[in-house]
Amino acid sequence: MRRAAAIAIGALALASPAAAAWSAAVSGSGGAAARTMPAGNTPGASAVLSTVTVTWAANSFPGGTPVPGYLIRRFNSLTQVEGTVLAACSGIRSGTSCVESGVPAGTWRYTVTPAAGVWRGAQSAQSTAVIVI
Question: Do 107 and 129 contact (CB within 8 A), yes or no?
């Protein structure tokens, strides 16, 4: 055991330090730009019995490219507890409206969050309250 330790210590003592360097010879100009994900536009919501229609204005990246999708969230207006968005408004929506049918009774507010792949913009302000009966 002592012999193995002595060999290991000797090998470390004889090892030379590693060397690394970056070399760059660059001419000309270059640039890169990152897209900024916009914040969501405040949606409008209207209810007829237990059906809620949510609409919002489309968002665009700087330069005018449209945002490809949106996430919709629903909150209890009194408690601010998030409710489960039903199938017609769940997931990433490619349009600028959706209609939830069978929404539980209560007073609800909706938000919109722009989405592109795994990237998300800031969540919008909440819509005005809608009463579902």
Answer: yes
